[in-house]
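Format notes (please read before filing issues)

Several people have asked whether sequences and structure tokens are stored in separate files. They are not. Every record keeps both together, in the order shown below: the sequence lines, then the token lines. Line labels are part of the format and must not be stripped during preprocessing.
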Amino acid sequence: MSAEATNPEARPDARPELRRRGRTRIDLRRLGRAALLGPAPRDRLPDAIGHVAEAHRAHHPDADLSVLRRAYLLAETSHRGQMRKSGEPYITHPLAVTLILAELGAETTTLTASLLHDTVEDTEVTLDQVRAEFGDEVAFIVDGVTKVEKIDYGAAAEPETFRKMLVATGNDVRVMSIKLADRLHNMRTLGVMRPEKQARIAKVTRDVLIPLAERLGVQALKTELEDLVFAILHPEEYEHTRALIAAHAGESDPLPGIADSVRAVLRDAGIAAEVQVRPRHFVSVHRVALKRGELRGSDFGRILVLVGENADCYAVLGELHTCFTPVVSEFKDFIAAPKFNLYQSLHTAVATPEGYVAEVIVRTRQMHRVAEAGVVALGNPYATSTAGSATGSAAGPAEAADGDEERVDPTRPGWLARLLDWQRSAPDPDAFWSGLRAELAQDREITVFRADGGPLGLPAGASCIDAAYAQYGEAAHGCIGARVNGRLTSLGARLSDGDTVQLLLAQDSSSGPAADWLDHARTQAARIAITTWLEQHPDGPKPTPAPARAPLSVVGARGGGANAVADLPDATVRLAGCCTPVPPDAVAGFVVRGGAVTVHRVECAAVARMRSLGRTSVAVHWRATADCRVTLLAESFGRPHLLADLTEAIARQGVEVVSATVDPPVEQRVRHTYTLQLPDATGLPALMRAMRDVPGVYDVSRA
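Then the structure lines:
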């Protein structure tokens, strides 16, 4: 905020423009002089915020501007006499921040809070005064953006300020919208700071603010912040990139001609579309240069196609891929699968007969608005439950809309919920600060689903351990396994977008995580919880030691005969123990040593091996008798009397146990192998259900 205020003219080459086409550039010095002339007549807005009003009305034609007038008058009066380090009246800063948000389409409450965002921090205005004049909602946002007192927190003031803002953002994302616009204006005017202070502010912007802008989908702010940081932290690469762009400006640009061809194709197809050439910003050009080496004319921009409806996006894609040569590897569908930051578009690339490759982005106009402004474009998340919040009549974001029920911000994404969860476990400011940077460094997110169908948002590369702590918190200390898409897997297994995860918890409350869990945990919530438990239990969990013994085997009184018949006279038929086929399984038979025929299920791996060895195949069919023998695997948590309970469940189904093997417990999990004689093969599904219903058993499958 005020600490970073400097000369706006100091770095003109490092200030990418973010303004609308045709809108005149704002002279902040002139606005500052206008601010010092005092309030405007009561019947009109002060001249100093005329540009804000114009930008606001462009997005919200029916907006009530009277509240902006009152907010401006309070801000100008309270900041009067304060100057920025460049010598400008201080009021130019909240005006510039508010103008940035107005051009992005922010609603009136956000602009009101933006005009007042430094009053409580830097003037004699109190939060109670803001609340009395503008309502709880504006007061909540202003308080969320206000820094903590350095005199109280010392060196921890910066991380604690960000912690406070994150917690406030969890209730209302507009808090972070104002912070991002505030940092953008301060970065634009950073030029007269000492180089070491410029570098420190730029690093915090790179590590924290830019990732937050990306996650909130505010690409218009993110790209300009990236360029400003690039100019400060990497001046040589910045100058090289600037020289590349300047050299390209003097050459013939192929993109306008390609855009004309795209317009003609879409016009002939009857698709109403707006086609633009979008120049890349500095960091984007730098990244393309690193990726492709020598740049061609079409690498300095992209073609943007705007249409009315989602279906039109795919119609445009079809025409492009029909009339041009598509680069298949460049196609991405972010409409069917939106990014975690609300972004939606179709991305493709096409090659022209002249040999140029042009990247094309296709989206609707609403998608374009959200892509540029992110959560700012969503307006007031509480508009359906409150009205007139800027006039003092609305409840605050943490208050109930109905009774005691807390309002939930529909724009609150999964990554923010994770940050809010783990920050409670990181009371130390240094741990919070380093953890925040590490969490924000993970730039992609996946969505997995719990067994009950509920979603879990996790960073890309997250493991089952991360999912366990995201779902169960500290109860995940007792996690002993997981099933991903129905199959048992290790806790360290990485998850993919769309996976279904069922987490298995031990019944023993003394269970705890192993030290090697830290090798697989990606989220800070999981890492902090695991580290805390290990520090509190230096000797680790104390499970009951398993005696070293051979597997226990129980053999029944008789063996069952095979009920399969081979089309080979007088041949002995055996059911394979590896897959234990039963009626009505599809089976295949093979002649083995001694002339016997071994019968396997057709999907058994041994079938392919037999065929590769050239073993003679024999047709096999089932006898009319329905009895069969089958081997089942039961996996369970270890507990007393489990073997007796399983045997009783099997007996209740009228099934005979031919043999049973119980492996020694491993990480409190026990594996049972049963060979069973069934009087009727049709009873197998009911038998497996009965075994799964035994307490402690979490999976029963065919061998």
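For reference, the curators noted about this record: The radius of gyration is 34 Å. Residues 194 and 679 are 87 Å apart (CA to CA).
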